Amino acid sequence: MTLMPRFILLILVVGVSIWYTYHYASKIEKDPTKSLLYNQRDEDRKRFTIPSGEENIQMTGRQKAVLWLFGLTFVLMIAGLVPWDTINSKWTIFNNFTKWLTNVPFLGNLVGHDIVPLGSWYFSEITMLFLFMSIVVMFVYHMKESDFIDALWAGWPTS
Question: Where are the domains of the chain?
Fold first, then answer.
């Protein structure tokens, strides 16, 4: 199987996407009323306006910690989804670590003997990662349990 047709298709699709986006942005820059979202412009301006005197707001330590945890979550997700041992058969560090961890007497029982190594994750593992990290964020941010549950349910899809 050759990669050249895929590469050509990638170049064409990216090129058309860039052209279309630039064309649309130029059209909206000339006449903002032609935007698909023009009717909600006033509402967006109200929502995203910074009150006067608050232009130089600094992030708190808790907010910075939560931002780092958010980034770490995505790094773990990517590491969990990339099939490392199929890219290079010598990259077995995650498989070896998982085997070692499950053979440690107490830890093996705690995490379970059927734990999936990084590089073999799928929806179940990613779901648990995000659920676990959201709970970690709750503790790091010192969020009340009731506020956490309300925020969790507010972000849950209703349909």
Answer: 61-154
* pLDDT block averages, 10 residues each, the chain of length 159: 86 97 96 91 85 75 95 95 90 91 89 88 93 94 91 72
69: CB partners within 8 A, 6+ apart: 133, 136, 137, 140
pTM > 0.85: no
Copy the structure tokens of residue 23: 């064309």
CA distance 52 to 34: 30
- Print burial letters for 37-48: b (CB count within 10 Å at least 16), e (below 16): eeeeeeeeeeee
CA 109 centroid distance within chain: 30
C-alpha distance from residue 28 to each of 17, 22, 40 (Å) = 16, 10, 15
Which residues neighbour 34 within 8 Å (Cβ) at sequence distance 6 or greater?
A: 27, 28
Nearest alpha carbon to residue 83 among 50, 40, 127, 116: 116
Q: How far apart are CA 31 and CA 136, in angstroms?
A: 46
